[in-house]
């Protein structure tokens, strides 16, 4: 490929932000090319093991930063292939948050009310099932019973899962070989392909430059299918409009590396990163107490020992999703199945001083793996993450053949963030350590830092150019025709799983992207139905479209 290759719209990344933009623009008549850094995996490729080269290592990107590590998707379909398919909408109060800037961080045009029609549009395009108690796994039921015992409430979680196909195999993080998870591989992406979009896996975008005719040139490397450290040449594609959706850990790095060829970037590019305030706690359950305190038995002589039975998040406690509480005191607690491998390595020993990745005490709790219950906390943070100078290639310096790298993110939690973590930790302990039911330990500590599976806000939307890289239409300030539609655009922590909100904001951004393309001579229209042809969601958002256009 040479620089003479041209397309109307170049989309970087095929997760929620990229797939949604690619579908609508292709359906509207634009020539669309999607460049995806990772491989293109299908149902038959999703392995149930942790071997090098399995879907577990091929589809993930685990980047270690200074104070924060990011686990994300690295495949066609992005995070939708490796997430747990939990799809709640963000609480109303989230859009009024002030965070670290002391005033409303979200654009004035975006609220829960104005975003609801776009949520509806997503829900029409990605089948979402509101689970009930008949869908709940044993682990989820135990969490619900513990919440009830402690005077808290618990709720089944809405998910993008076809429950008629789900086998409760617990391998949701490595894709779904039974096609139960309604990832983008079954919704927006095949619809984009049907309208002529091209998807090119193993293409890692490095930077963007300008062309003489006012367009953009995207520079990429070909990545080896087996060893992601190996590059097989490079290429360029010219486009009139660029949609960046490489993820909140990679999109700002691409823009930082592009500054020499594009010109000065907004100050907020690579700043205000949020890990969605996330924390993981492991409870080591006392099997006798499970039977005596909660009155639970599986009917085969076992009280619990059930961590291999179930699926991803099925039950959450939302008692603290209360807008009347002070900021940094609001959070959700979600039962989460985290598989062996990462789970067993990163979990810490309750009561152990310092880091306990290994040693006698760690061996003892590993013997009781089936008595673990993992609780996922999503709190409010201060958007304190900052990206340093970009690495020579990609978003990280690769340490291994697949998956593992070291990136330029520095995250130093503020007292506000630490207070939020502490309050969530205390709530989990009060629920699960009550009456000796379990011992609880957080994964995060001063030595190893924090972890997030939902990176956000590194190129966020907003009204203030000083604190937001994008305007309220997701267009990069000072660089017309470049849009960011992934989790990087979300202004801050949401207290719940963010996929639904990322998707809704991407849907909302499409009319502005279509307008930008039309202004650059692309014959494209807006108004495609949902990928399956449904139109009620389209009717719901059409009255909102004029407000998203500049003219």
Q: Specify the CATH class.
A: Alpha Beta
The overall pLDDT average reads 92
CATH fold name, please?
Answer: FAD/NAD(P)-binding domain
- Give the count of helical stretches: 13
- Biggest beta sheet summary: 7 strands, mixed
Q: What would you report as the Rg, rounded to the nearest angstrom?
A: 22 Å
Strand content: 15-25%
Estimate the helix proportion, in percent: 10-25%
CATH 4th-level superfamily: FAD/NAD(P)-binding domain
Query: How many distinct domains?
Result: 1
Instruction: Please identify the structural class as seen in this structure.
Output: alpha/beta
- The N- and C-terminal alpha carbons lie at a distance of 37 Å
| Global shape | globular
Tell me the total number of β-strands. Answer: 21
Keywords:
21 strands; six-stranded mixed beta sheet; 13 helices; alpha/beta; 551 residues; FAD/NAD(P)-binding domain; seven-stranded mixed beta sheet
